[in-house]
Amino acid sequence: MASNLQIYFFYITGIISLFFLHSCKPAINDNDNNSIDTEKGTKESPTDTMGILKPTLGNSENKNYSALTTSKESAQKIKTFLHQKYLEDFDVLKPADRKFSFFQTDFNNDGKDDYFVHLYGSYFCNAEGCTYLLLDNDLNEIAVFKNLYSPIYRSDKTTNGWNDIILFSPEILKDEHQYINITFKNGKYTYTPAEAEKLNFIPSQNCIVMWDNQVSAKEFSF
């Protein structure tokens, strides 16, 4: 009898364990079937220096992608644009340089998504950050930002019809202000770090955060 009770106990314990293993599995946004030339996700990881977030390539198994980063149609449009823009550089671009991720969201309140594009590899990144492009829905180049660290925020405030952009200050190691505010003027975003508005507060929760340390952006090749 004791032997039968022991077997029954292990049987019930096994069923309960399987239930919890299944129910505790984290939810993911797996969009592998809606991608082109995908390699892996990019995820930003914090460093131990002054709390600065620096861009790093994420775990290839991480599929917790933001829904703003996975559109196959948008990725194809951006891929075509990058092919044309950097066609003359293809002889020197390594495979690691021909990778990008993007966030799509409306920056000028016209009801159409625009594209904030993050470029990778040693050709576009260095110790001071990476190159980012902001393209409108028709793939017109609105801004080129070089030597930026993430995260990047689309502010809930607007200037001349376009959302402000909040960036990490390049002077963060010398200045108590961690962020600067970039506004749209004269048909473009003006980015002069020395003259940019410095913020002494963290971005609002109403901002859209891109390339933060919580969610991956799907990576594509061009």
Automatic annotation (TrEMBL):
<protein>
    <recommendedName>
        <fullName>Lipoprotein</fullName>
    </recommendedName>
</protein>
<feature type="compositionally biased region" description="Basic and acidic residues">
    <location>
        <begin position="37"/>
        <end position="46"/>
    </location>
</feature>
<feature type="transmembrane region" description="Helical">
    <location>
        <begin position="7"/>
        <end position="23"/>
    </location>
</feature>
<keyword id="KW-0472">Membrane</keyword>
<keyword id="KW-1133">Transmembrane helix</keyword>
<keyword id="KW-0812">Transmembrane</keyword>
<feature type="region of interest" description="Disordered">
    <location>
        <begin position="32"/>
        <end position="58"/>
    </location>
</feature>
